[in-house]
Predict the structure.
Amino acid sequence: MTEHRQAALEYARQHEDEFLAALKEVVAIPSISTDPDAKADIHRTAEWLAQRLRDLGMQGVAVMPTGGHPVVYAEWMGALGKPVALVYGHYDVQPVDPLELWTNPPFQPTQVGENLFARGTSDMKGQVMASLNAIESIVRTGDFPVNLKFLIEGEEEIGSPSLKKWLTDNRELLKSDFCLNPDAGMLGKEYPTITYGLRGLVYFELKVFGPDHDLHSGLAGGIVHNPAQALAELIAAMHDADGHITLPGFYDSVRALSQQERADFLRLPTSDADYVATTGVPSLWGEPEYIPAERIGARPTLEINGMISGFTGAGQKTVLPAWAMAKISCRLVPDQDSDEVHAQLTRFLQEKAPATIRWDLQKLSGAPASISDLNQPAAQSLSRAMETVWGSRPYFKREGGSIPVAGYMQNILGIDSVLTGFGLPDDNLHAPNEKMHIPTWYKGTQALIHFFFNLAEG
Amino acid sequence: MTEHRQAALEYARQHEDEFLAALKEVVAIPSISTDPDAKADIHRTAEWLAQRLRDLGMQGVAVMPTGGHPVVYAEWMGALGKPVALVYGHYDVQPVDPLELWTNPPFQPTQVGENLFARGTSDMKGQVMASLNAIESIVRTGDFPVNLKFLIEGEEEIGSPSLKKWLTDNRELLKSDFCLNPDAGMLGKEYPTITYGLRGLVYFELKVFGPDHDLHSGLAGGIVHNPAQALAELIAAMHDADGHITLPGFYDSVRALSQQERADFLRLPTSDADYVATTGVPSLWGEPEYIPAERIGARPTLEINGMISGFTGAGQKTVLPAWAMAKISCRLVPDQDSDEVHAQLTRFLQEKAPATIRWDLQKLSGAPASISDLNQPAAQSLSRAMETVWGSRPYFKREGGSIPVAGYMQNILGIDSVLTGFGLPDDNLHAPNEKMHIPTWYKGTQALIHFFFNLAEG
């Protein structure tokens, strides 16, 4: 095996130019999933990937219909008794507007120094191709050491509307031990990163009703509890002065961070100044007993996503509005439950809302946090692979957002996801001048080769 | 004089049918000031009134251009050494939509029982005609006992945009001792009412800025002070638990109510249940040491007229918004000053706004409260006239709103306004099925006859 590993790594090093040429081919196809005119390009991209998988000797290669954009499927099940890795990817890309802010045309890949500029290089055709490069390097130099399944969807950038049903319909086909999802990035080019936790989400709409119609603020101002004010008072009471959430019982089921987790958070190479710079706020805010990365990754939040009441146009109107509304969502961490949080917010309102108003709370959606076991073989194999290539233990990160596909993998297929990737923070994802750092991408290919061999060795 | 008064009152009683016929004529003209297609009808109404004033022997009758809709002017200056009354009115009316909610066509006056239904009957062609009826009754039976000037504008329902300049340009022409403004209503058909105070207004726009662009609530939630939350916290802090406004020094220049004023407020025939019914709130709110009528008429307020931040459409978007905005206005009472309140709100924000956000406060407009001297001859004459007709002393009321024209009279012409009128709370002003209570209107004519004679007698 060691000889095969060395041969594969060597193959990858010798074929870097060909890998780059292939990537340039596929990023030149404008597969913008939200663009109704891009249908032909979407299919062209899917077919291009399917052909490449066929060329690598993969089996059961198919461009499978979903009702929306197709999924590219492939497998290689020749490693009897070895783990089955489900490799996830997406071949669709974000729109390119504002086009005038691109230095080079977005679908004309342009190499500048160590970077390759084009839409989709980093998010995530480059990541898909790093997986294919690793597989090519291994299969051209011997037998593949583990079993593989590929799932490359075409709707990630529009919220994967067809994926849930497709996964459910193909549950048997997709049976695997874990999912490798290289759609998460690195903290910096010297900071290999494994994302192992994602926060959940529960989303509410809260309406406060006062008078039964808009009133004249002169004729009723002083005797009516203004619904905008009442809503503001309720919102203000949802946090204490230190940024803790005051819903009754809110923290009861929040899993405490272990010493190791806190040490991993502390080790993350992001400073307060970095957070101030990327957000543009005058100064940071939040629970003082946790560092910012913990507050984002491992602590629950309650956020006002929107708020509206009365007259909001230019100029002035002396209305006393009949109602006020807020969109409120909580990011959840293990082991919070969205229904429990719904009950907590309801209890908060029952206790705090004054008799001078009426209120209505709707739960719009709920999804639990997910966290992967860092001791599972896939996570350990990837960690060792990254340490081999970069010379340092990777960073273990919990992401503050919710990646729906990781939730689907857990809920529909019953498997954990190991999230990684070789994109960098300055890759301009979803923005003009998206790019990919080519040397990091080559390192990523090397790391994935190690990963598959590590996995086979257990 | 007593004989003349009796003859005039008798004339009015005998000509009630003719008065009603004339009112029906003028409300049939659709003089909707906001309707660009109603220009001809606007002019027809002005000319109709001018002709009627000429028929009554008024002098200097003119339909005077203003840049917008014309003003009808007339005068009678034959009562040497007697007071000069400026009678204000407006001949324009509100739009009629939603038309389908009218039981009868809005410009086809329809008598049902004691009520006359048509747009403008109560607001305020009926009130203008009550003045003309009183004058007709007096001039047909003798000489007019005081001096008169008439100003009937055509833009009240669109905010009197041309009036300020017209008043300034015609300051000399309009020189008077006081203004009689019958555009305020009665508290009920057995409750003759004189409105002697109006609240002022200062209007602000407050913006709170957090991050320099909208953030993903998953990626930044927990480290950034959400601007919608921060705005809510500031708004919530602007009142204490009893509804008092917490801006530093806010109540310092608020004139205390005299015992007589509090007694007049207490005497007002409006119960808490009435306020609950007309506003539709679950229960009333506000400073517990003042009754609702005092809170509306004589206490300052701070009201949220509008509020907006982030995503407010259907469904959900997990944005952490970059900014939040509120429209905030204060109703002012004597002797508050809008610039002082601006300074107080600024100081409040300087003291309370946290370092985690930035804010910007703009003052959009400001106008002081106005209050008329109830001991002046015009107010006393009207009070006695109403007591004679209704058999009880009128109610003295302070209105919570701001009537700009009363402010103009004070600031441009230097005269107090005596506000009254014979409209009732259920007249459906600005709404479908506007109506006027005919017996109350006849009483109003009688009261105005007494008023002019009382005024002459001093």
